[in-house]
């Protein structure tokens, strides 16, 4: 099954087995449809096929068939983990890939074979990197799956995430949440990519009755997938529709929680989707106290409803890290008792924080997308 990995950025990965609506979009896209990718990928298969060539072939399976998507290649030797871990400093948002024993500074999860790490600002990606698990056996082939993993079909899937596609759990698709006999983008996959980059000829969507413009599009920006959630912060995102969006409902762990106020200023969404009415007033947001949830993993879903009775939803998994008390009202009850430890370029560990008489270790990690330090762990 393809599942989300617990990494500090929005990450999508591919694994072996698992569960099974038309195409789904992650939200961001590449501005003007332009992606430059470093395919300086050393080595070859036992049969002599170059990994770099297979990577370009995988990318071209999208770029050659999607009008408005322009993928170009460089050979500069950039490292896929640059900027994600202190061992590899920031490289100016270069898109790259490679075989590694770890997913940058994190161990690969059980059965995880590849991850796509993406950073976005507003509605646009600024960097996406693909990391392949070197602990697995790899080859390059079409057709039925073999004992060695087919590098190219996995790369096609990960490039799908890179250009903005989420997992497809209903139709036959390369973006399906499992490895199978499909090794090329299907019509559904290409419809999704065309919906992002070539809407004039596009994909039809899954809500618009066959029109090139989906009836509703919705994006949950915070919490992002596998975000560490804590304190009192915003739930936010946007939703647009060919009919008036009437309400946004919030569900936590499958249960209705409340409606989220809708109609906030989103000039960036208005510029991206000018054909939708009031798209520049499409934001939704509300304050949420994550401490009211128990520590651990949770799921959040937001559903948009329009005046024609249609609905569309999106969801995100997140992990709550919190002190024992949901809201500490007395600031004197929180103290830092020891010095901090810095690891890499983006992680600070407060080794001893006392909150209401109990000692904790608090890890802070820089979040480029939100431009702030996130509490990544409280132990």
Written description of the protein model:
The protein is mainly beta. The chain folds into three domains: 10-197, Collagenase (Catalytic Domain) (3-Layer(aba) Sandwich); 216-320, Immunoglobulin-like (Sandwich), CATH 2.60.40; 331-378. The chain contains four helices and 22 strands. The strands form six sheets. The protein has a five-stranded mixed β-sheet with strand order 10-17-16-12-13, with no helix packed on it. A hairpin with a 3-residue loop joins strand 19 and strand 20. The longest helix is centred in the N-terminal third of the chain and has 13 residues, at 51-63. It is globular. The model is unreliable at 1-13, 15-21 and 200-212 (pLDDT under 50).
The helix content is 10-25%
Q: What value does the Rg take, in angstroms?
A: 21 Å
Mean pLDDT: 81
Q: Which segments are poorly predicted (pLDDT under 50) over 5 or more consecutive residues?
A: 1-13, 15-21, 200-212
Q: Could you tell me how far the N terminus lies from the C terminus, measured between alpha carbons in angstroms? A: 30 Å
Query: Which oligomeric state applies?
Result: single chain
């Amino acid at each position: 099954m393809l599942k989300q990995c617990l990494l500090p950025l929005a990450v999508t990965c591919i694994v072996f087995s698992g569960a099974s609506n038309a195409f789904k979009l992650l939200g961001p896209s590449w501005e003007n449809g332009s992606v430059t990718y470093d395919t300086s990928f050393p080595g070859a298969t036992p049969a002599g096929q170059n990994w770099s060539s297979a990577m370009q072939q995988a990318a071209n399976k999208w770029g050659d068939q999607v009008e408005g998507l322009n993928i170009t290649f460089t050979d500069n030797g950039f490292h896929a983990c640059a900027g994600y871990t202190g061992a590899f400093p920031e490289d100016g948002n270069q898109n790259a890939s490679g075989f590694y024993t770890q997913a940058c500074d994190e161990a690969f999860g059980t059965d995880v074979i590849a991850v796509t790490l993406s950073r976005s600002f507003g509605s646009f990606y600024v960097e996406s990197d693909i990391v392949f698990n070197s602990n697995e056996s790899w080859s390059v082939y079409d057709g039925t799956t073999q004992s060695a993993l087919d590098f190219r079909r996995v790369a096609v899937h990960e490039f799908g995430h890179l250009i903005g596609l989420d997992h497809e759990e209903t139709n036959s698709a390369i973006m399906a949440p499992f490895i199978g006999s499909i090794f090329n983008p299907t019509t559904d996959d290409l419809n999704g990519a065309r919906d992002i980059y070539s809407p004039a000829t596009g994909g039809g969507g899954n809500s618009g009755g066959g029109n090139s413009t989906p009836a509703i599009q919705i994006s949950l920006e915070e919490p992002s997938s596998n975000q560490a959630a804590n304190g009192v912060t915003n739930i936010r995102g946007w939703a647009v529709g060919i009919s008036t969006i009437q309400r946004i409902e919030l569900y936590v762990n499958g249960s209705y929680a409340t409606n989220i106020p809708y109609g906030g200023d989103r000039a960036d969404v208005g510029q991206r989707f000018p054909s939708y009415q009031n798209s520049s007033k499409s934001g939704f947001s509300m304050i949420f106290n994550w401490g009211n949830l128990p520590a651990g993993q949770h799921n959040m879903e937001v559903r948009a409803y329009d005046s024609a009775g249609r609905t569309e939803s999106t969801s995100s998994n997140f992990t709550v890290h919190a002190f024992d008390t949901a809201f500490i009202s007395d600031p004197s009850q929180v103290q830092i008792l020891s010095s901090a430890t810095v690891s890499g370029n983006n992680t600070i560990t407060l080794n001893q924080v006392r909150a209401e008489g109990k000692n904790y270790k608090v890890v802070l990690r820089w979040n480029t997308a939100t431009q702030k330090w996130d509490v990544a762990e409280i132990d």
